[in-house]
Specification:
The chain folds into four domains: about 90 residues, Winged helix-like DNA-binding domain superfamily/Winged helix DNA-binding domain (Arc Repressor Mutant, subunit A); about 55 residues, no CATH class; about 90 residues, Arc Repressor Mutant, subunit A (Orthogonal Bundle); about 40 residues, no CATH class. The strands form two sheets. It has a three-stranded antiparallel sheet. A three-stranded antiparallel sheet has the order 4-5-6. With about 280 residues, the chain is mainly α. A hairpin with a 5-residue loop joins strand 5 and strand 6. The relative contact order is 0.08. Helix 5 runs antiparallel to helix 6. The protein has eleven helices and six strands. The two termini are about 40 Å apart. The radius of gyration is 27 Å and the shape is globular. Helix content is about 60%, strand content about 10%.
């Protein structure tokens, strides 16, 4: 197997096939273990190991394993006694390559037949292809409208890819759900991705740090990436050259006891902010 091709093929497969977060996490864990085992056809791994790598309970691993088997993504069999179960990964990239080759052979056959009766068959193929494209587009649109997992899977894919780029290679379903929670609260997906990028640049490759950043932004009314980027720039300015000014002294008549005034040293300007809305993750 080719690790990168399998991951890309898996993400493509997720676009039209629903799969729970637990099953997705288990698939990545099993792929990682199979890679370390030099892609053997069958490999053994204990449930306790899978619990550590996925963040799932033994019961969660069992449920996710059955889901993957039902969807045709893995094969597994139990062994007697205390022996670990045996697993084998079902290659998606090989399946895609086979379909591509089969499609090419089918197209070649159609071309040869078209030479025998060029006019009629060319017209028929053009009509059929147009109808098929229209039917496929309608079916895909209907799937996206009716499948509740479609948009969720798309978000999960982007969040997982971003976390992997940040160095968090196998995020648990619980960790992904923590970040997806803010999207459900009205925070843009791009804002979540920016928080992941920001954590990677700060060498804080932990989901709890990213979650803390999103919590601060949400409490401050930040929902879009543009707002988050502006807040980040303001914080850099404040952090780079601040000196404490007088507290509880309103300059516009509306500042109360929860506010603190800060003076930017190199400009002499004073900035006021609400201390109760900011927590700085460690």
């Amino acid at each position: 197997m080719n690790y990168i091709k399998e991951i890309n093929a898996f993400y493509d497969w997720l676009e039209t096939n629903g799969l729970s977060l637990s099953a997705i996490a288990l698939w990545f864990a099993l792929m990682h273990i199979n890679n370390k085992a030099a892609w053997t056809d069958e490999f053994a791994v204990a449930v306790s190991v899978l619990c550590v790598k996925t963040g799932l309970s033994p019961r969660g691993v069992s449920s996710a394993r059955n889901e993957l088997a039902q969807k045709g993504r893995i094969k597994w069999r139990q062994r007697r006694g205390n022996q670990s179960a045996l697993y084998s990964m079902v290659s998606l990239s090989a399946y895609v390559a086979y379909n591509h080759a089969d499609s090419q052979a089918d197209n070649t056959s159609k071309y040869q037949l078209s030479v025998m009766s060029a006019d009629n068959r060319a017209d028929n193929r053009a009509d059929n292809r147009a109808d098929n494209r229209a039917d496929n587009r309608a079916a895909l649109n209907k799937l996206n409208e009716t499948d509740p997992n479609s948009s969720c899977n798309a978000r999960v894919k982007q969040i997982q890819e971003s976390l992997q780029t940040a160095g968090i290679l196998v995020p648990s379903p619980t960790e992904i759900e923590k970040l997806d929670y803010w999207i459900q609260q009205g925070v843009d997906l791009e804002t979540v991705l920016f928080a992941i990028e920001k954590a990677a640049l700060a060498n804080k490759r932990r989901v709890d740090y990213i979650n803390g950043t999103l919590k601060n932004w949400y409490r401050a009314g930040i929902r879009t990436r543009e707002q988050a980027e502006a807040e980040t720039e303001n914080f850099k300015i404040l952090k780079g050259g601040l000196s404490d000014g007088p507290t509880n002294q309103p300059t516009g008549g509306n500042l109360g006891g929860n506010y603190k005034q800060l003076r930017v040293a190199d400009t002499g300007k004073t900035v006021s902010f609400d201390r109760t809305k900011f927590e700085f993750p460690g």
